[in-house]
């Protein structure tokens, strides 16, 4: 198995388990102004990202140093003009982070807070947009990694476009793992990062943007290092050159990850694998007595939240340690008002891994009294 030299499988939403070949791609040093890197690697990646996102003309891409949040902040800070106003569809920690960025950058905004287990209602959205004509931009998270909820993207985009607003999508944990055409949907700015469904390593994010809108963003940025327009201009005018030191090894690993996505059969094939992982996981977990936080119709193939067992003998840390000792790292919950844990299925993780995980979980259910205790297992 490609990941067999890893000490354990990361069932987390990024960084995630990468293939050995992706990690090996980092074993060379690259010069940031040489054509081998700029033209050969960066420009090629930029084109591939646009091709993965849409069959429509008129889109371009920008890569940005930092974790995914830096690309969200670069987009909000560079795209929304001083006289603009942002509507934030907030139904989880990442939606809340968008509102936090808007607050910190002094961007006028309406934080439409829906709690963490409800989806936006599009007639309500249409009403909010009609009521406040000052709103120019709408931002939403596609897959809310907080819970694993997949937001109703086509309906939301249709409503936003009907109202004539600019649509900004945080597709951090979904791009590359869920098929979509951003041109069909009318998405103007899509943000994602290297270490999620493309299955690269952390270090940079990227934005796929409607070229005509990005062209209008000159001089708008509220930050120097996170100026999306300047970064884009530098890449456009200098064959893929980044303004400041680029994460060369990470970028090279990402190029390899994109090749492997293609070899797998593209986004549709990857989506099928993630979907099989998720459905196998949920069926197996329910058989073991676990309950999902969300109704199944709200699930994404990316990550799933489970209620913690009600038994007073259950303790997340002991459960986590037991699974880790068996080669699986899971994720704590992030929902504010429910006791949960999360299991992701993105990365170099296959249905056979999920089967082994389910066996490891069964062997770790010390609180039921029916299995060995942690001490006995060790
Ligand atoms: C991972 C993620 C981010 C970015 O997180 P970073 O820790 O900054 O990489 C943003 N939004 C969503 C939905 C995510 O899953």
Automatic annotation (TrEMBL):
This is 2-aminoethylphosphonate--pyruvate transaminase. Keywords: Aminotransferase, Pyridoxal phosphate, Pyruvate, Transferase. InterPro entries: Aminotrans_V_dom (IPR000192), NH2EtPonate_pyrv_transaminase (IPR012703), PyrdxlP-dep_Trfase (IPR015424), PyrdxlP-dep_Trfase_major (IPR015421), PyrdxlP-dep_Trfase_small (IPR015422), SP_NH2Trfase/AEP_transaminase (IPR024169). PANTHER family: 2-AMINOETHYLPHOSPHONATE--PYRUVATE TRANSAMINASE. Residues 42-305 form the Aminotransferase class V domain. The modification N6-(pyridoxal phosphate)lysine is found at residue 196. Coiled coil: none annotated. Its cofactor is pyridoxal 5'-phosphate. It comes from Photobacterium halotolerans. GO terms for biological process: organic phosphonate catabolic process. The keyword Transferase applies. Involved in phosphonate degradation. Signal peptide: none annotated. Substrate binds at residue 342.
């Amino acid at each position: 198995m490609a990941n067999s030299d890893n000490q354990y499988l990361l069932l987390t939403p990024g960084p995630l388990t990468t293939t050995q070949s992706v990690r090996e791609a980092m074993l060379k040093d690259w010069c940031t102004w040489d054509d081998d890197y700029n033209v050969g690697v960066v420009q090629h990646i930029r084109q591939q990202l646009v091709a993965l996102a849409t069959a429509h003309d008129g889109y371009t891409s920008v890569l940005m140093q930092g974790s995914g949040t830096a690309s969200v902040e670069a987009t909000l800070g560079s795209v929304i003009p001083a006289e603009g106003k942002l509507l934030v569809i907030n139904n989880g920690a990442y939606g809340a982070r968008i509102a936090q960025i808007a607050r910190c950058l002094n961007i006028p905004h309406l934080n439409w807070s829906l709690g963490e287990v409800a989806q936006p209602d599009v007639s309500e959205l249409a009403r909010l947009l009609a009521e406040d004509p000052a709103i120019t931009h709408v931002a939403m998270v596609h897959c809310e990694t907080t819970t694993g909820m997949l937001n109703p993207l086509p309906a939301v985009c249709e409503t936003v476009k009907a109202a004539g607003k600019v649509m900004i999508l945080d597709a951090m944990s979904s791009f590359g793992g869920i098929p979509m055409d951003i041109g069909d949907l009318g998405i103007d700015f899509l943000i994602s990062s290297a270490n999620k469904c493309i299955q690269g390593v952390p270090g940079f994010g990227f934005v796929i943007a409607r070229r005509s809108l990005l062209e209008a963003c000159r001089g708008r940025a509220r930050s120097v290092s996170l100026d999306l327009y300047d970064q884009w201009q530098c890449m456009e005018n200098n064959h893929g050159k980044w303004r400041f030191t680029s994460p060369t090894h990470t970028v090279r690993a990402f190029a390899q990850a994109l090749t492997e996505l293609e070899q797998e059969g593209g986004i549709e094939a990857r989506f099928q694998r993630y979907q099989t992982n998720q459905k196998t996981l949920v069926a197996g977990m329910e058989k073991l007595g676990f309950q999902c936080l969300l109704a199944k119709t709200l699930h994404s193939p990316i990550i799933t939240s489970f209620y913690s067992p009600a038994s007073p003998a259950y303790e997340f840390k002991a459960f986590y340690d037991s699974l880790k000792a068996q080669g699986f790292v899971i994720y704590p919950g992030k929902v504010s008002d429910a006791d949960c844990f999360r299991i992701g299925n993105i990365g170099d993780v296959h249905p056979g891994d999920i089967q082994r995980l389910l066996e490891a979980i069964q062997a770790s259910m010390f609180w039921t009294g029916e299995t060995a205790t942690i001490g006995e297992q060790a």
